[in-house]
Specification:
By secondary structure, this protein is of the alpha+beta class. The chain has eight helices and 19 strands. About 25% of the residues lie in helices and about 30% in strands.
């Protein structure tokens, strides 16, 4: 196991700066997930840690040793890619033991390492099969097993589940969580899927445009996003974000003229200052008269246990989405915005933390 530290990591591809001075500390044994939209730099950051991309500036340390000038094979890492990259002419046993064989390990050592990894991943019965005889999930387990036998200090995963169907992705998320619990090894995982990030990570690193927007636990990012980007990116359905202006102490006025009371001290901003109000769809209520908004029902996404109701509210450019346990029967719906559930962001997209109401 090992710590990983990045200090002002910069990566340029010609004139394009993909990583813009990344500072990050990953603790020994942590499961950290890099998440963000396409082009945010998450895969480039992972590949830089692996040594597949050379940093333009800055440094990388693994287990206290600087490695940004060290070849990938000497960094103590193992990487699992989106494509399984298995040798089709080799059996599962041969695929898993190939790196150890190249390293000159004895046949007995290779056999023991492969057997141990296969038992951990529950693929002992597959060891004599070829990759073409395996399902997608089984191939992914073999690719992980090939990494495990090397006993790395750090596991790196680059969108390993993106080629699998939805049901298998759910199953494999459980497998990854179980694997981390069993091995206790530091793991860094890249995905564009926020559900994977929220369910797997000890901490999530949200990247946007080559910079870190926020680092925190899934609960921290969901409940207390630092920026408007994180608020809108984390969560499904996405957070409702309502343009507003400061109307007075702990009150704002929406574009449609509705005045909303908050539990946030707006005294840090002048009256008339532009802000954005945020509230999760599941926090909207159909009971209560405080902060009430009425809208026309434009669409209902019924998912069995929840109904995502899209409301057209006067003055709002985007629909207001409410996640309800019961499907509304009428064409219009009034919902309330509980003061304690509201978030607020200033004109620079930074969170305004709660003050006294």
């Amino acid at each position: 196991m090992a710590t990983v530290r990045l200090n002002q990591a910069v990566k340029n591809f010609g004139p394009v700066e993909v990583l813009k001075g990344i500072d990050l500390d990953i603790d020994d044994g942590e499961f950290v997930v890099f998440v963000g939209p396409s082009g945010c730099g998450k895969s480039t950051l992972l590949r830089s840690i692996a040594g597949l991309e050379a940093l333009s500036a800055g440094s990388i340390e693994i287990d206290g040793r600087r490695v940004d000038k060290v070849p990938p094979s000497d960094r103590g890492i193992a990487m699992v890619f989106q494509s399984y990259a298995l040798y089709p002419h080799m059996s599962v046993r041969e695929n898993m033991g190939f790196a150890l064989k190249l390293a000159g390990r004895s046949k007995a050592d290779v056999a023991e390492a492969v057997a141990t990894a296969a038992k951990t991943l529950d693929i002992e019965h597959l060891l004599d099969r070829r990759p073409k005889e395996l399902s997608g999930g089984q191939r992914q387990r073999v690719a992980i097993g090939r990494a495990i036998v090397r006993e790395p200090k750090v596991f790196l995963f680059d969108e390993p589940l993106s080629n699998l169907d939805a049901a298998l992705r759910v199953r494999m998320r459980y497998e990854f969580a179980s694997l981390h619990a069993a091995l206790g090894t530091t793991m860094i995982y890249v995905t564009h899927d926020q559900v994977e990030a929220m369910t797997l990570a000890d901490r999530i690193v949200v990247l946007n445009g080559g910079v870190i927007e926020q680092v925190g636990t899934p609960d921290q990012l969901y409940s207390a996003p630092d920026t408007l980007f994180v608020a809108g990116f984390i969560g499904a359905p996405t957070m409702n974000l309502l343009p507003a202006v400061v109307a007075g102490p702990s009150t704002v006025r929406l574009a449609g003229g509705q005045v909303i009371e908050t539990a946030i001290d707006t005294g840090v901003l002048p009256t008339g200052a532009a802000v954005t109000l945020g509230i999760r769809p599941e926090n909207l209520r159909v009971v209560g008269s405080d902060n009430a908004l009425t809208g026309a029902v434009r669409m209902i996404e019924s998912l069995g246990s929840a109904h995502h109701v899209h409301l057209a509210v006067e003055g709002l450019a985007d629909p207001l989405v409410a996640s309800l346990t019961e499907r509304p029967a009428d064409d219009t719906l009034t919902v309330s915005l509980p003061r304690e559930a509201l978030l607020m962001f200033d004109a620079d997209s930074r969170a305004i933390r709660k003050g006294k109401a």
